[in-house]
Specification:
Number of strands: 4
Largest sheet: 2 strands, antiparallel
Strand order of the largest sheet: 1-2
Distance between the termini: 68 Å
Oligomer: single chain
Structural class: mainly alpha
Number of helices: 16
Length: 441
């Protein structure tokens, strides 16, 4: 009888101590945008490790960021879904009504799940996800809210993954490689690796906002010529001599914006490679720096990443459409054939045609988008390349940074001037079109 009595007393006591610890401020603490910033940085690190090409990397960023944004837009009356605004995008499932969610938790869940689906190093993403979920656990989110939020993040991720499967990416994996011709004006593989042309069918990928890959076709490149008094030869000689003056500063600019994800090195019979951030990854880092500088809340940070990555993705599609239409040879090829067989560019020539400059197009598109979000004269210190051994560089605006990114390719010896400056115009058109079409508020 006494044992029953004590058991009766102990039951509510045990129940009391086993109750979950709920933090009344869990929503505020979970809304720290650092959770999203760190997730984006993790995705960048994996993209670098897996050596995705710049166009493919832009696709990974765009779908992952879209997933996080759609979660936050579903919860925030200040933001609109991009459903019906992006090509063929009908949206994501709506959350249940009149129940509580932790939307930042759902957004990070969706971002990481989509990212993990699109990269190779799934274990690395899985470990990171487990770590950041453990941090959310420490906040003290109520169990039902946590489970509901995780489930909603998974639902949104599934919808975005399904959307990504219809953009023709998988089909282009089986398309023919670039075919080398005997035309002296056309692109040829370059040393030291003589790699095949990367993504010759990227213009077949569905754009997010553009009407078509060829919507903003730039003026054609200068006509190829071997005549020394021709405009083309003049452009070649500009590349050949560009470092004769102010070499130190021009080299600093070229190296800062190199962003070559796979740089080959040959020492005797040994070949190895170093990995770097992609051009799109650099601009996603700039987007992060902007959001952190103004202390953007979680929803604004999600919008920043989504719009920037969409601009990058469509800019790559537009640029690659022109690259494999004009198929212009690189300065290294021309100079080694006709001027100086021992000449080397300051930067390693990337493995795809010359015109237009990818850096110029995508940097300007991203800069136009970020200017729309943060203003014309947004001064910032760009520290993205510090972890790759380079010092910071300061810029008075996003547009100024994009202009330096463009001219860096001339200084690096891998583009003629028209590819850089016409590329800026092309990127400007892409960015302005996206700003005009997409309404997030």
């Amino acid at each position: 009888m006494k044992l029953r009595y004590f058991a009766f007393l102990l039951f509510p006591l045990a129940a009391f101590f086993s109750c979950e610890k709920v933090n009344p401020d869990f929503q505020q603490e979970a809304a720290d945008p650092a959770y999203l910033h760190r997730s984006v940085k993790q995705l960048t690190d994996v993209i670098v490790h897996d050596i995705f090409s710049p166009p493919v990397a832009s696709r990974i960023y765009a779908y992952s960021s879209l997933a996080a944004y759609e979660v936050m837009a579903s919860a925030n009356a200040d933001y609109q879904s991009l459903a019906g605004q992006l090509n063929d995008f009908s949206g994501v499932p709506a959350p249940q009504k009149e129940v509580e969610y932790c939307y930042p938790l759902a957004a990070v869940t969706a971002f990481l799940k989509v990212g993990q689906t699109l990269i190779f190093s799934e274990d690395s993403m899985r470990v990171f996800r487990e770590k950041i979920m453990a941090e959310f656990d420490e906040i003290g989110i109520p169990g039902d809210v946590k489970e509901r939020s995780l489930a909603y993040g998974d639902e949104v991720a599934a919808a975005i993954i399904a959307y990504s499967s219809t953009d023709n990416y998988k089909q282009t994996r089986t398309f023919p490689k670039y075919s080398i011709t005997d035309n002296p004006a056309e692109w040829q593989p370059t040393p030291p690796s003589y790699m095949d042309g990367i993504e010759p069918s990227w213009n077949k990928i569905r754009p997010f906002v553009l009407d078509s890959s060829g919507q903003f076709t730039p003026a054609p490149p200068t006509a190829f010529s071997l005549e020394k008094d021709s405009k083309f030869y003049e452009e070649v000689m500009e590349v050949y001599t560009v470092l004769d003056e102010d070499r130190e500063e021009k080299m600093a600019i070229a190296e800062f914006w190199d962003c070559n994800p796979f740089v080959s090195h040959t020492t005797g019979h040994v070949m190895f490679a170093t990995k770097k951030i992609t051009p799109g990854g650099h601009w996603m880092g700039i987007a992060m720096q902007a959001a952190i500088k103004v202390d953007a809340d979680f929803a604004k940070a999600a919008a920043t990443y989504s719009l920037t990555s969409i601009a990058l993705a469509d800019a790559f599609i537009s640029c690659w459409d022109e690259k494999y239409r004009s198929r212009l040879l690189r300065p290294e090829t021309f100079i080694n054939r006709y001027i100086d067989e021992n000449w080397l560019p300051a930067l390693q020539t990337p493995p795809f045609p010359e015109y237009t400059s990818g850096h110029s197009v995508i940097s300007r598109a991203a800069a136009v988008t970020l200017t729309e979000l943060y203003g014309d004269n947004f001064a910032f210190v760009d520290s993205v390349e510090v972890e790759y051994g380079l010092p910071v560089r300061s810029f008075e605006s996003f547009l100024a940074a994009s202009e330096e990114a463009a001219v860096s390719r001339l200084y690096g010896g891998i583009h003629y001037a028209p590819a850089c400056f016409n590329g800026v115009d092309q990127g400007e058109a892409v960015g302005k079109f996206i700003n005009a079409k997409l309404k997030i508020k």
